[in-house]
Amino acid sequence: MADKIRTFIAISLPDHVLHGIGNVQASLKRSGFNIRWVRKEGIHLTLRFLGDVPKVRVEQISSAISAAVMGFSPFTLKGHGVGVFPDLRRPRVVWVGISGNLEVLRNLHGKLESQLKGIGFAREKRPLKGHLTVGRIKKRIDKAELKTALEGLEGFETDPFTAEAVILYQSTLRPQGAVYTKLSEVNLGV
Q1: How far is CA 16 from CA 78, 100, 108, 158, in A?
Q2: What does each of the 190 residues of the chain score in pLDDT, given as a tens digit?
Q3: How far apart are CA 123 and CA 55, in angstroms?
Q4: Angle at 23 between CA 22 and CA 29, to 5 degrees
Q5: CA separation for the pair 147, 189 (Å, rounded)
Q6: Burial 12-51 (b: 16+ CB within 10 A, else e)
Q7: What is the domain partition of the chain in residue ranges?
Q8: Model-level pTM?
Q9: Is the peptide bond before 91 cis (omega within 30 degrees of 0)?
Q10: Mapping DSSP to helix (H, G, I), strand (E, B) and coil, where does residue 122 land?
Q11: What does the alpha-carbon distance between residue 124 and residue 89 come to, in Å, rounded to a whole number?
Q12: Which secondary structure element, helix H or strand E, spans residue 153, and what is its range?
């Protein structure tokens, strides 16, 4: 297993957006929910989780990302809304949604999927649901209280941010949470 690394492709977020998301986390923490919060440096917009891949494929994946982003300029997004996956009956993940130039985001994701398919990765079965994971619910939670807390965050928005690069990350799982290491970064509009 040492010759394989856990990887994903994502767009990073600027500090001002992470600060706004931190306010959402703080609001829900005050409600006393038993949620394992994602650290600020761990919040990102995942485009594709690749899982365990041989280290020797990092360069090939980076090249696929470069080919996918060709012709894309930086574009604007923002965090918008707060919810849970899969639903309020069985909440497992607390998320902040994404709004803004979603058509460009979907097109970029489609190009990325095509390039990854070209190097042997199966296409993602589910469509992209742009979101930012901000917490994971590990234990039972009062669903009515959670619903009320989420309703109190209705209309939440971060300031807009510019998606400027697509990044290949390594994810190393540790007891205190995942640690992400940037393996390559491809700027948009270059």
Answers
A1: 11, 16, 24, 8
A2: 569 999 999 999 999 999 999 999 999 999 889 899 999 999 999 999 999 999 999 999 999 999 999 999 999 999 999 999 999 999 999 999 999 999 999 999 999 999 999 999 999 988 899 999 999 998 889 999 999 999 999 999 999 999 999 999 999 988 878 899 999 999 999 7
A3: 21
A4: 90
A5: 41
A6: bbeeebbebbeebbeebeeeebebebbeeeebbbbbbebe
A7: 4-187
A8: 0.93
A9: no
A10: coil
A11: 26
A12: none
Report the distance separating Cα 164 and Cα 62, nearest Å. 16
* CATH level 2 (architecture), domain 4-187: Alpha-Beta Complex (3.90)
Tokens at 176, concatenated? 């205190």
State the Cα–Cα distance between residues 183 and 64, nearest whole angstrom: 14
Q: How far is CA 15 from the centre of its chain?
A: 15
Cis before 86? omega within 30: yes
Q: Are 44 and 132 in contact (CB under 8 A)?
A: yes
Residue with tokens 């949620």: 35
